[in-house]
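for the record, two folds in this file. i put them one after another cuz i was lazy. first one right below, seq on top, structure tokens after. the second one comes after a little note so u can tell where it starts
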Amino acid sequence: MSVSVHYRVFTDLYKDSVSLMQLGAALRARAGVEEASCIMATPANLAQLADAGLVVDATFAPSDLLVIVRGEPQACAAAIDDAADTLQSAAAQGDGGGAAFVLPLTSLAMGFEHAPDADLALISVPGDYAAAEARKALSLGLHVMLFSDNVGVEDERAIKEFARERGLLVMGPDCGTAIVNGVPLGFANVVRRGDIGLVAASGTGLQEVTCRIHQLGGGVSQALGTGGRDLKDDIGGITMLQGIEALADDARTRVIVLISKPPSPAIAQRILDAAAASGKPAVVDFLGAAPASISRPGIVAAHSLQHAADAAVALAQRRALPPAAAAPPVDRVAASIAAMTPTQRDVRGLFCGGTFCYETQFVFLERGLACGSNVPVRGASSYDGHDARNAGHLFIDLGDDDYTRGRPHPMIDPSQRNAAIRAHAADPAVAALLFDLVLGFGAHPDPATELATALREARAIASAQQRTVALIGHVCGTDGDPQDRSRQQETLAKAGAVIAASNFEAAALAAEVAIRRRGVAA
């Protein structure tokens, strides 16, 4: 069967990146379609298409929406026709039955005129234009959640300083999750309202902690994202400092939680001083930082995302602080370990959430287990994304830019991660496969079903080689999420996976497997 590339251009039609990623994922799931992408035709997006092997000989304007599909010709043509129906239906105004024409809102100013009580703009446009749109929103007196990525560091600092001068907040760029006054934004989860306020430079870290707070019976007052670079020296922690001040002034917030990768000593000192001066107890998780560098009066140093949530709920409920979480009982995977062959010593982690990949590396390094990653932490080796044989313990963030060029994030379309699970199961050195599943608004509507199929196939691949692979994972979400955490967990457990209560617990359990297999003669 021949394979070809088909495309269609929709002139001057804009859709946000999340909608386009979801549409691309739906096209890619169709029979006969090998690859598909739906993008705004900016130079940066077109370059990513080229990296993904989707190239057409045509010229586009940045305001054009491009749908491009590779596969069997008939399947591609049908896919593009359906995409056109979806896009044109979504773009239509009125009901087509004689309703009055409604002028589309084509600018922030028009949107604000339509909703003058609004106080926040969520911006998801190509990075080349994001800073300009953010400045427009700020000029209208709106706080900004900047979902867009590929925004320059100088632009980020400029718009954050512009916002600070006006008493406004910029969450982002590349801010995928927030909960503001009980309203979930981006990939946020359904959690109860309460008295714990959070500021995080990590989207999945924010999701993990807010979800566990909910599971422990606590609630969230506000959950503010900063974007991953906010605590870099170039930015200076502007948004996190503003977030701390806002939570300190918020009567509903009694406990503050801060989450980030370790900032520089100067920025860390500034953040910790602000937290200590807030007048409210604070829990700080600078992933991988020594607790002694964080602890001080009024501040609890968390040892993990799980511990951060546990400590925050204990403070809110005026209970004794919990100890750092211990390693889970290894008996949950004892049968798998007993059935392994001498070649099986390595753990492979395949993650949708970058923070989960980051935290897992620290779990292994703290136990003296060398590891590598495509997003290595201090002390881990760098993995270039190619041959994983003889790589040892390896943790891959499949949401990193190298894996998402021209493709949706694996939280929206998990097919690439599921394929990686099958591939790594075939490696005779692999003893355990570690994975996450991230739920929430905007994420895949039922990711466990496809993942369970991949896990069963992984077990079959190993079994054909007379091996047994331990399958260890955790589900970040709540039962109130559209996907229903309990249902997702049950689906994965039926596929033979051990489902832990948190990413830390899953990583610790995988580390116990590695320790038990260390020194086994091949």
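(here's the note) second protein begins now
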Amino acid sequence: MSEPLDLHDVAVAVDAATEGLAPAQVGELLGLLAKGVRAHQMYRANNPVYQRFVEGLRQAFVACWAYTGAIRLNVEENAFRFGDQRFVIGEGRDNIAFLFYKDGVRHVTFLPGFEDELEGFLDVIHRAKQLGPEEDDLVTLLWEREFDSFEYGYIDMLAEGLDIPDGSDVELQPIPAGIVANELASGDYAPGGDLVTAPTGMVTTPAGTISRENFQEALYFLDPVELEALRAELEREWSRDLKADVLNALFDRLEDGSPERQDEILSILHQLLPVYVGRGDLPSAATILRELDAILKRGGVFDAGRADRVARLFEELSSPAVLGQLVQVLEDGGMQRNAEELGFFLSHLRPIALPALVRASELAGSEVVRSRLQSAIDRLGERYPEQVLGLLESEDEAVVTGAVRLAGRLRLVQAAPAVAKLLDRPDPAMRLAVVEALVAIRSGAAVGVLQNVLDDPVREIRIAAARGLGALRYQPAKARFEALIEGRLVRSADITEKLAFFEAYAALAAANAVPLLDRLLNGKGLLGRRQPSEIRACAATALGKIPVPAARTALEHARNDADPVVRSAVQRALRRGEAEA
């Protein structure tokens, strides 16, 4: 809500004695408002730090409504006035009162309910700070927002202090045409227009005061070489990385400064790092980490207290709140060209970052994001294997699943018993991850439990376990595979699962598997019936993977089989054997 002010009304002070509201309360409220404006500028809307500032400001407004029904403030050039008290909020461009004053706002009023419009108000202030000279002003932004609980009064800046005549007493007279002719005839002019002589007693006219020299170029002007040099300097200045120069200056002062200056610079860096991470500015964040890491390793710059302060800064970067912002930027595609800086940043994280990173990698919707996070997770896991073991006991299913995959990628033998215990979990994704991890770890004691997974209710888990046992040549599982191949479970499975079991059996039993496979391929039952086509085809494929003469002989017996499915599988197996020979 807004109202234009009469110029005489602007000088009238707004009544500040508002039902017992103390000036100290107003000062505290305006201080919180300034912090809220800065937080809106530095953080995203979902950032916990920003939400904490906004909630504190909202509660401050609610507390004021117990004493007053409206908070009315005069707007001066660099301060808000409440009664006889002046409150300067911010400095320079960050002075909120000046932001209102320069666009003509002369008083503002906050009403109950403004706390519900608070974030919209902060957004308007943030946008007003970024407006260019040719864009709308603050009054326009406030008018577009249509606040219900915020009122303001403004004046027309163009008319302020001007006494504009109404023009009723001005009478314009026409200029006779002869005056121009008489003026031209009043003197003699050279061809260039210069006045040479004027008749005695006549005043020189304005036309006689203008000459050609008035329109000549300046005596000193830039030649093409100088213009090019000036253009190059301007281009260099425009393309200069100002942030990098500022950060370098801060680190120069950090190394040479007094303890008080070091504290101030560390506070600045403490504020900048989360902002850079939240905005996806990894080059700037990596620069800060690189310099601080180099200073810590070199030693001699910080005392023990300030070194601990820098170490705590690295710990804070590993917090879930900061990493959540980083993952969000990654998901939004804001770091596609900063893979090197991202890797450098992630390499400086502390072990407390592992749970958040593992969870993010499991829930990431992008394969690129998942790959980048996993590279950082692997580096942290290699440095802190005990942390990986701790994650296996987490209550978060996503964290446990990611920790299982991590243990498998790192081949942590010490994690095998804890990983094997997770085969009892109901989540199929976790059980599949456990099977793959146990196969990757290659621990004999842990691999043995995979035999119990060969009859898992989930097809993908059975296939993974069969292929894993076959790849590891786990001989104790031979009898188990023989029973399954001739049993009902494998016979009712699809062709992919059948092949996985037959090939795994051939891999671990080798030549000892030929009699059973030959019987399934070429044998007949009591009534002269042969095995189903898919079983015979799988047996032929498995025989083709056993490089012994007995296996080839069994295949040769079925080379011309009447069943096209079987015949095709036999011929492929024979060609495979010939190629390997």
